[in-house]
Amino acid sequence: MNPLRDAIDRATRLGRPVQDATASQWSAAGSQLADLTWHRCGLPAADLRDADLSNSRWVQCDLRGADLRGAKLDGAAFIDCQLDHTQWNDARTTNAAWVKCTMAGSDWRGACLEVSNWLQCGLQQACFAAVGLKRCAFAGSITAQLDLTDARLLQCALTGLNLADALLGGLQADTVAFIGSNLLNQKLAGLVLPRCNFDGVDFGSTDFSGTDLTATNFHGSRLDQACFNQAQAGHALFLEAQLNACRFTDSQLQSALFVRAVLNGCDFSGAALAQSVWDHARLTDCDLHGVHFDYGRFDHARCNRSNFSHCGFDRVRLHGAVFDDCDFTGARTALAYQTDQALLAAEQPVLSLESA
């Protein structure tokens, strides 16, 4: 006689939830458990490998240490459950949800999930190494030492997470929102992060060396001593960002937007900045020697004590721009516009721009 099996059969027959059932180390590998609802069930260390849990609903259940490797989870929902140290390796699922669950030490290596959500869950020391996630969200979850090594994320939301101590080596994240997350002093060098949204994130001295940041959004972010050397950041947005002592040596920043950004002591030596836009930006003590701003814009920008020596300003708009105590030695200014009416002659020193 198997009381749990009887409870499942009865619930299936009557269309009711399985309630208050208990079993330790229950073996249900490969079982058909789709469309069932479970309330307050205690099933620690259950063996649910390759089980079909499609469209099942689990509420206030204890599944700590359960093995769900290879389980079918399409449409499944786990609400207020204890799921610490569970194994979900190689899961393939869409439209699954985990809400207000404790999931410390859970293992998701190799899983592929689409349109799935972890909302307000405890994911301390959870392992998502080598996972594939598409249109998934981790909003409001508690994370510490989260492992995202070699993970592949597309159109996901990792908002409000603590990722300062996360393992991110080999991460590929395309069109991922990190709004409100903590990435302070992280090492993101060499990662692939195009079209990501870091709106308002405080990075501190995060390392972006060699990282793909194409069209990535840093709107309102704070970057102190961050390193962007050799980063691929064409079309990146630094609108209203605060950048202090950041390094952009040899970075690719074509068509990047620094509108209303505040930059202090930043180094852009050797950076590619053609068609970049600096409208209303404030630059102080910055080094931009040898940079070509061709076809860019500095409308109403204010630059103080900055080095523009040997820069190229071909067809750059400078409407209302002010350059105070800046170095323009050897700068090429042909066809650079100071105002709508005034055209600077080729090779003319630009120091006179302060009077604009």
Largest sheet: 7 strands, parallel
Kindly provide the radius of gyration, computed on alpha-carbon positions and rounded to a whole number of angstroms. 27 Å
Compute the separation of the termini in Å.
Answer: 92 Å
Name the shape in a single word. Answer: rod-shaped
Average pLDDT works out at: 91
Secondary-structure class = mainly beta
Strand order of the largest sheet: 12-13-14-15-16-17-18
Number of helices: 1
Give the fraction of residues assigned to helices. under 10%
Oligomeric description of these chains: single chain
Strand content: 5-15%
* Number of DSSP E strands: 18
InterPro entries: 5peptide_repeat, PA_immunity-related
Pfam family, one: Pentapeptide_3
Protein name: Pentapeptide repeat-containing protein
Organism: Chitinimonas prasina
Tags for this model:
356 residues; mainly beta; 7-stranded parallel beta sheet; 6-stranded parallel beta sheet; 1 helix; 18 strands; 15% strand; disordered C terminus
Question: How would you characterize this protein structure?
Answer:
InterPro entries: 5peptide_repeat, PA_immunity-related. It comes from Chitinimonas prasina. This protein is mainly beta. Helices cover 3% and strands 15% of the residues. It is built from one helix and 18 strands. The chain has one helix at 3-14, and strands at residues 18-19, 37-39, 57-59, 77-79, 92-94, 97-99, 112-114, 117-119, 132-134, 152-154, 172-174, 202-204, 222-224, 242-244, 262-264, 282-284, 302-304, 322-324. A seven-stranded parallel β-sheet has the order 12-13-14-15-16-17-18, with no helix packed on it. Strands 1-2-3-4-6-8 form a six-stranded parallel β-sheet. The longest helix has 12 residues, at 3-14. The radius of gyration is 27 Å and the shape is rod-shaped. The model is unreliable at 335-356 (pLDDT under 50).
